[in-house]
Each structure stands twice: as structure tokens, then as C-alpha cells.
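Input for the complex:
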Amino acid sequence: MNLTVRMLSVFSSVARNLSFTKAANELHLSQPAVSMQVKQLEEAIGLPLFEHLGKKVYLTEAGKEVFHYAQSIAQQFIELEHVIEGLRGGVRGSLSVAVASTANYFATRLLAEFSQRQGQLTYRLEVTNRQTLLVELQNNDKDLVIMGRPPDDADLVAEPFMENPLVVIAPPMHALAREHKIPLSRLAQERFVLRESGSGTRIAMERFFEERGVRVTTSMEFTSNEALKQAVQAGLGLGIVSVHTIELELEARRLVVLDVEQFPIMRHWYVVTRKGKRLSPIALAFKEFVLTQTPSVLR
Ligand code: PGA
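Predicted:
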């Protein structure tokens, strides 16, 4: 089979987008040029890779197989680049990191400090919730991910580097704000606002109450820590958040942490990578930095 890397990468773009037009835009090529590459690949393989139904494009069985291999070949090329970069002794390049929404409160500071020490780098930081991070790890999209403990999965390597205590927050005027050692069961009389399903904080909170047989009333759902804190300040309910998210509000006395028995819920932050993934020298350096320098940077 006479295949070229060029054919495979053009084909992959069409397969990913399921559109010749989008692939042409992504690759800055004309649409006929994209079609030509795909046609040559189909001729080399001797089977059609796409089928057209109405206006939609679908991968054929052969198309799915070729896409699978084209992706791993592309990954191998990236790894080869990393290895060469390492052999040249450089740690230049770009770094693509994804972090849980809650980790964003400190991840930017870590990246800023790291970039000051390294220089000559470009970064891409994506902030999203736990569920999306797990999908990205599955797709091998990111150099590394900072998140709460991932599910036990033979394909992932997770290394803890810092505690992540979750606490109950309330507005300063709340009836429980001045109480000490509030029994856990007392929370059953309160209303709680929640993060979205898919958030690690939410999963930990639900598990915690369930394991202890406490039923709390929940009302509204918010897709960010910021929105949730605003809701708590506005008196819409109590909230459970990571202490990393409330530094400013505690300082300004806009929120208080309630002294509830059995709290905080102790979680940890992990650097997570896919097993067997060859990290670029810069990604390796960043991982090492996070694992060893976080306490001194965030002091
Ligand atoms: P989040 O936090 O998904 O709630 O932002 C991450 C985690 O605690 O796992």
C-alpha cells in the first residue's frame, strides 16, 4: 500500500470533523485538494472510507479502522518530536494542560511561576470539570491533567501532590455562622446549592452524605464555583466548595466556613497522565515542578 503521512493527516481531519469543508478550513486547503487526498488514500487502500448520506458524511468500517491507526501514527510523530527535542537537550516548546475548574484557583499561579523559570514557552490551559477531563485523558488530548483522584483505571497514572479540603460555606449572617462543632445531622435542616453533575466536588459531597446517611435538601445547580459562591452569598443556600476557591471571600468576610463535625471532606489533587505516554521534556519538567514545588509556590 502506498500511503503517505500527508494523506493520513488530511483524512484524519475529515474523519474528526465528519466534513470536507471543515477539514479544508482547518488545514487551510481548498476543498478539492482535501477530496483529492482522500480519494488517493481510498485508491491506495482499495476501499471507500466515507459514505455520503444526504448532506452527511459517515465513516465506513474501513474508514473507522484507518482513522484509528492514523491517530496512533500521528501520536507517534508527536512523541518522536518530543524525543528529538529531549536529545537536543532543550526544554522549549509548548505545553497543553487541562485542569479541573476548582484547580484553576492555583494552577495558573503554578504555570506563571514555572514559565518565569523556564522562559520561551507557549501554554494552553483548559479549565473544565472532572467528567470532561476524563474524556480528554481517554482521547489522549492533553500533555497532563490536574484533577481530583481519577477512577481506578489501568491506563492512567495518578500522582497526588496536595490536599484539597472541602468545607461548608455560608453567608456571615447565617444562624450557624457562630456555632461550634455543629452536628452533621443538623445540616439536614438546611438547603444546599450544588455544582453541576460531573463536578468532582459534587460527587465527593454526594458520596460523603450518602455514606453517613444524611439527607440534605438541594435546590439550584451552578456550573462554576464563582456562581455557586455568589448564590451562597445571596442566601440561596449553603454550599460545599474546596478551600482553594474561597481565599478572597474569607478575607473580605463575604463568606464564612461553618464548623461542622466530620468536616472538611479531605480530597487530594493529582497530576494525571496516560500510562505509557512519552511526555515531552517540557511536560515532564512541569510535572516534576508541580509534584515537588507546589507547597513553596502557593505558600
Ligand atoms: P471540580 O473539581 O470538578 O468540582 O471542579 C475537581 C475535583 O475535586 O475532582
